[in-house]
Amino acid sequence: MELKDKLLSSFMVFEDRVNHQSKNINEIRNTAIKNFQQKGFPTKKDEDWKYTSLNALLKHDYTISPQQESAIEFKDVKKYFIHDIDTYKIVFIDGKYSSFLSETTHDGIDVCLMSSALNKPKYKIIMDSYYNKAAKADHSLTSLNTAFASEGAYIHIPRNKVVEKPIQIVHFSTGNETSVMLQPRNLIVVDENSHVQIIERHQSLTSNVVLTNSVTEVFANKRAIVDYYKIQNDNQEASLIDNTFISQKQSSNVSVHTFSFGGKLIRNNLQFFQRGERIDSTMKGITIIGDKQHVDHNTLVHHIEPNCESHQDYKGIFGDRSTGVFNGKVVVEKEAQKTNAFQANNNILVDDKATINTKPQLEIFADDVKCSHGCTIGQLDKDALFYLRSRGIPEKEAKALLMYAFANNVLESVKINAIKTRINKLIAQKLGVNLGFDL
Amino acid sequence: MLHIKNLHAGIEEKGILRGINLEVKAGEVHAIMGPNGSGKSTLSSVIAGKEEYEVTDGEIFLNGENIEELGPEERAHEGVFLSFQYPVEIPGVSVTNFVKTAINETRKAKGLEDMPASEMLKKIREKAELLEIDRRFLSRSLNEGFSGGEKKRNEIFQMAMLEPKLAILDETDSGLDIDALRIVANGVNKLRSKDNAVIVITHYQRLLDYIVPDFVHVLHNGKIVKSGTKELALELEEKGYDWIKQEATI
Ligand SMILES: Nc1ncnc2c1ncn2[C@@H]1O[C@H](COP(=O)(O)OP(=O)(O)O)[C@@H](O)[C@H]1O
Ligand SMILES: [Mg+2]
After folding, report:
1. SS3 B165
2. Chain B within 8 Å of A389 (Cβ-Cβ)?
């Protein structure tokens, strides 16, 4: 059976199981499955999917909602957490909440579960105002997630709270099934003047096939600050389609850093909507891949109101036969005067067989704006390489240092030191070097 | 120490060095002077092993061994150091970490353990003091945003840390004010011993007041057209290069 058909028939079973829930949510689900049914999976014919094919991924016979519960020992997965600082943790194993590995809270803030938010009346007001309000309704993969959404992180930070500890959202898959499809759904609502930091990771623990189609909605109300870090360093058989929608109000500041170092196929759909003045939106990324890995960054910033800024800076290093895509769209509406939009995508191809397709798209309808964009594709600088080697540093290590130097400025805006250290280690690991210091 | 015989080298069909002969013995300081574009930087790069240049004829011997097959890092491990005319910026890697890596990679190549951290620290402190380098400077990203003078001083700091057998200084004096020049020269002189050698490439006699050469060579059009002692540098300072160019064409 085709995956699409399998999903459609699973939906009926799923619907029976969950339809005791609120009418509103059921309606959202039904609309979503209809949209998915009509649109199906995206194909290369879709302009936005020209360079990323899901065909190979859709051939597997996925388990849609894994039922078997599995336990994991913390010591076995400790390395996947940022563990040298105190954090809240919302942890899932094969899509199911693991209370054992988690550290949630209701003390002044809600750091808990989407399953609770979907079911319990006390979350109804927030859910009715925010749930599925930022997610693109006509986007087939997002609709697919919306139809099946039952678990994920639910975070609500009321006004005037600076959340001291970062929140880690970690999804493990255990390989209990030969191939599994996961559809986590996260909602993050940050009220006026509040500040929160989030770290997200998806990690498969075996070489069984995993396809994650994740949807995250972030709402930053007036003057809220949200820093979001996505660590994508999964194994060769794990693929991720990350759909993140960010809706910002006046004077809020949201940054998303995406570190893509591993996985079979990664597609990041990252969309910012600026619904107020003096908003700042930042999206940065470092991609370092090899083998036949594929990473696709598809970004959108929608400048709707005046006096806002957006900053995009993506660095990519592609080795072997790996492929990269960067498709960055900036829309500046007519009313959005004095917009300042900056976009850069710089890439290094380490091997002849590696490829990158990079395409900035600017749609500017206002006349008083500052927009700049630039993309480069290059090789490592020979003079720089000679400089390092002439100091006794072997070629491989010298190349690694140069690649690190190339990507480095993306790390400058990372506000959590423990993350910086971890990313540096992952970069060194990814580049296969041990330099005697953490990069 | 270094013996260059009839060296011809160039890039993509273009000949740059056209028959260089030079012998530098341990304990000696040689100065190489010459007009812009005469091939001074190319010569230093070829000695240090830059692969873009093709050696079409001749040989380079280091301590009696032909080094043709050695990569730049292997030459460094053999004790060659080149202070670059244009040092490269490496964002995100501090001066200290860079120097540590360079030293430990060289030790690794010789089958030695990493230098103990305390010893490294002591050495860094000592050499930084010698070159009057501020501690904060050492934690900055290598060459990033350094002034021309800072870059050169940092090159000599690295040289002092690596203690090479053969140091080649390619226009290390350009961009230095007189105080910095004195400090840098002092750093170079500290390195001098009967076991190692220095090649100083410069346009100006000025530096040679501080690092006094045993021999002075004039490079023109990829050839050494005149060699002499330190008095030759004074003569060049006075008369410029034109008389040498004329002599060379006769
Ligand atoms: N990488 C290169 N590519 C092309 N030409 C070069 C290159 N390096 C040096 N040259 C040429 O070789 C000549 C000598 O250059 P160089 O060695 O830098 O001279 P100097 O250091 O004496 O000023 C010049 O004509 C220069 O343009
Ligand atoms: Mg030069």
Report:
1. coil
2. yes
- Using alpha carbons only, give the angle A385, A389, A390 rounded to the nearest 5 degrees: 115
Beta strands in B63-142 (DSSP E): 65-66, 80-83, 90-94, 141-142
pLDDT tens sequence across A399-410:
999 998 999 889
Rounded Cα distance, A366 and B188, in Å: 60
Q: Which ligand is nearest to the CA of B222?
A: 1
Q: Do B90 and A401 touch (CB under 8 A)?
A: yes
Residue type, B144: E
> What's the distance, CA B220 to chain centroid?
19
Say if residues A429 and A259 touch (Cβ distance below 8 Å).
Answer: no
Cα-to-chain-centroid distance, residue A372: 24
Query: Can you tell me the distance from the alpha carbon of B165 to that of B26, in angstroms, rounded to the nearest whole number?
Result: 8
Taking the centre of ligand 1 as the mean of its atom positions, its distance from the CA of residue B37, in whole angstroms, is 6
Instruction: Quote the ipTM score.
Output: 0.95
How far is the centre of ligand 2, averaged over its atoms, from the C-alpha of B40 (Å)?
5
**Strand positions, DSSP E, A10-162:** 88-93, 96-97, 110-113, 153-157
**Interface mutation target, options B47, B70, B93, chain A, most CBs of A under 10 Å:** B93
Please return the burial class of A162, using the count of CB atoms within 10 Å of its CB with bins 0-12, 13-18 and 19+. Answer: exposed
Specify burial of residue A129 (Cβ count, 10 A radius: 0-12, 13-18, 19+).
exposed
CB-side exposure of A10: number of CA atoms within 13 Å?
18
Pocket test residue of B12, B20, B32, B42 for ligand 1, highest count of atoms within 8 A of CB: B42
CATH code of B2-249, in short, is 3.40.50.300
Tens of pLDDT, residue by residue over B24-79, are 999 999 999 988 899 999 999 999 999 999 999 999 999 999 998 999 999 999 99
- Tell the burial category of B9 from Cβ atoms under 10 Å away from its Cβ (0-12, 13-18, 19+): buried
Q: What residue segments make up the domains of chain A, in order of their start?
A: 3-275, 397-439
CA-nearest residue for atom 26, ligand 1, is B37
